[in-house]
Design a protein that fits this description.
There is one protein chain. The longest helix has 26 residues, at 378-403. The strands form six sheets. Strands 3-7-8-14-11-10-9-22-25-21-20 form an eleven-stranded mixed beta sheet, with helices on both faces. A five-stranded mixed beta sheet has the order 16-15-17-18-19, with helices on both faces. The chain has helices at 12-22, 39-58, 72-75, 79-85, 111-121, 166-186, 233-237, 262-271, 297-315, 329-338, 349-354, 378-403, 411-419, 431-441, and strands at residues 26-28, 35-37, 62-64, 69-71, 90-95, 98-106, 130-139, 153-163, 193-196, 208-215, 221-231, 241-243, 249-251, 253-260, 288-292, 320-322, 343-347, 356-361, 370-374, 405-406, 422-427, 444-449, 457-458, 465-466, 468-473. The protein is an alpha+beta fold. Helix 2 packs across helix 6. The chain folds into three domains: 12-271, 2-Layer Sandwich (BirA Bifunctional Protein, domain 2), CATH 3.30.930.10; 288-385, Rossmann fold (3-Layer(aba) Sandwich); 405-473, Translation Initiation Factor IF3 (2-Layer Sandwich), CATH 3.30.110.
């Protein structure tokens, strides 16, 4: 058996890296900053894909694909956009053995190429709205990388929509933020905080950016998905115009929104413990693992038919696997704990005699999480248990976040809060205050929550009148 994981409290970063590799989620590629996503990790990404894709289509969006290569001149059309992404660009200058007349950028995001195409497709108000989503890869040449959280190439979805009015585009931006929040809470069991990004933290080229922010197990923040109201910035850069009902030419209003493989890193860091992964049932590639327990061939002959019967009863409604490897039960228990399978079913000779099985919950350690359950009606019992685990994991994560979120009243209290969690504090909105906070504490403005207490207060740094509470934290 491999050495135990480094405890989270001892070295959270090392713990995270060990989990990713020991649970066979991903590995390092020979290209600096890139990763290979292994089958178990890719199954998690498929759960993200399926959970979001279903929601996107329910809100009228369609999937499409746009090219990986973008002419450099496209990025230069929107000033803020190119300035924001220029340090991270991978650029192709030679292809087919010849120097290219114009360099090609390997897609860091697709606003520009999509803007160019929308200008060809949109001519009339009848063509609007355009509601497109892409499932693709992007490349951003990051200096400091970590598997899933920040890599040079990563998988994501990026939605791009065009609308006839500002109101429609604003509503779309908020709607998609709500879709992300719903997925994070109800599928990934992560209690996110939806909010608006500050001017300094918004997406390059956006009028307003919105985010869902989550607290990780080390009390740092993770930006888990973003939705941007782009106004008419890209419409004007790419001449995306339409004839309205009065036969007058108007610029469209656009949005973009994205969520990436970073969400897998979030799931690991929110739910994992010193034994390994803890996966919410809705996300888990395997929801139930059945471990047969026997010592002799005679016991095996009695146990395995019951194991197969349990598998057949569960197979229609849950993702189930029988672990029939030639390893000890203890090895198997530890292995599946590492992989975060929500429910372990144990079947031994005594269980066969009693007509029962043992169900062990991954979300509750030790004996407290174990129960003897009749074999009769096992499918209903397991489905009910998985629902309880899903709910409990969200509850655990919410309680952890709330217990580590403070509302400081002084600068000293503020510094203590962001050293050990989230700070909810009044902020005047001034960029200078924001910069000073970052310089002094290394904490950033994660978001201005959409849910505000109302009233007013004094800025936590300068003491000037403030009308909004912001979340400050150190972040990934």
């Amino acid at each position: 058996m491999a050495d135990k994981l480094t405890p989270r409290g001892e070295d959270f970063s090392k713990w995270y890296n060990e989990i990713v590799q020991r649970a066979e989620l991903a590995d390092y590629s020979p290209v600096r900053g890139s990763m290979v996503i292994r089958p178990y990790g890719y199954s998690l990404w498929e759960a993200v894909h399926d959970g979001l894709d279903r929601r996107f289509k329910a809100t009228g969006h369609q999937n499409a694909y746009f090219p990986l290569f973008i002419p450099m001149s496209f990025l230069q059309k929107e000033k803020e956009h190119v300035e924001g992404f220029s340090p991270e660009l991978a650029v192709v200058t030679i292809a087919g053995g010849e120097q290219l007349e114009e360099p090609l950028v390997v897609r860091p995001t697709s606003e520009t190429i999509i803007g160019y195409m929308y200008a060809q497709w949109i001519k009339s108000y009848r063509d609007l709205p355009v509601l497109i989503n892409c499932w693709n890869n992007v490349v951003r040449w990051e200096l400091r990388t970590r598997l899933f959280l920040r890599t040079a190439e990563f998988l994501w979805q990026e939605g791009h929509t065009a609308h006839a009015t500002q109101q429609e585009a604003e509503e779309e931006t908020q709607r998609m933020l709500g879709v992300y929040a719903d997925f994070a809470r109800n599928d990934a069991a992560i209690p996110v905080i939806p909010g608006r990004k500050s001017e300094s933290e918004k997406f390059a080229g956006a009028v307003r950016s919105y985010t869902i922010e989550a607290m990780m197990g080390d009390k740092k923040a993770l930006q888990s998905g973003t939705s941007h109201f782009l106004g008419q910035n890209f419409a004007k850069a790419f001449e995306i115009k339409y004839l309205d009902k009065n036969n007058e030419l108007q610029y469209v209003w656009t949005t973009s929104w994205g969520l990436s493989t970073r969400m897998i890193g979030g799931i690991i860091m929110v739910h994992g413990d010193d034994q390994g992964l803890r996966l919410p049932p809705k996300m888990a590639p395997i929801q139930v693992v059945i471990v047969p327990i026997f010592k002799t061939d005679a016991e095996r002959a009695r146990v395995m038919p019951v194991v197969e019967q349990m598998r057949e009863l569960l197979a229609g409604s849950v993702r189930v696997k029988v672990d029939d490897r030639e390893e000890t039960p203890g090895f198997k228990f530890n292995d599946w704990e590492m992989r975060g399978v929500p429910v372990r079913m144990e079947v031994g000779p005594k269980d066969v005699d009693k007509g029962s099985v043992v169900l062990a919950r991954r979300d509750i350690p030790g004996r407290e999480g174990k129960a003897f359950v009749p074999q009769a009606g096992i499918a209903d019992a397991v489905r009910e248990l998985l629902a309880k685990i899903q709910s409990n994991m969200l509850k655990q994560a919410t309680e952890f976040r709330d217990a580590n979120t403070r509302e400081p009243r002084t600068c000293d209290e503020f510094k203590a809060a962001v050293d050990d969690g989230f700070a909810r504090a009044w902020w005047c909105g001034d960029k200078q205050c924001e910069a000073e906070i970052k310089e002094d504490t290394k904490a950033t403005t994660r978001c201005i929550p959409l849910e505000q207490p109302g009233g007013s207060g004094k800025c936590i740094l300068c003491g000037k009148p403030a009308s909004e509470i912001a979340i400050f934290a150190k972040a990934y």
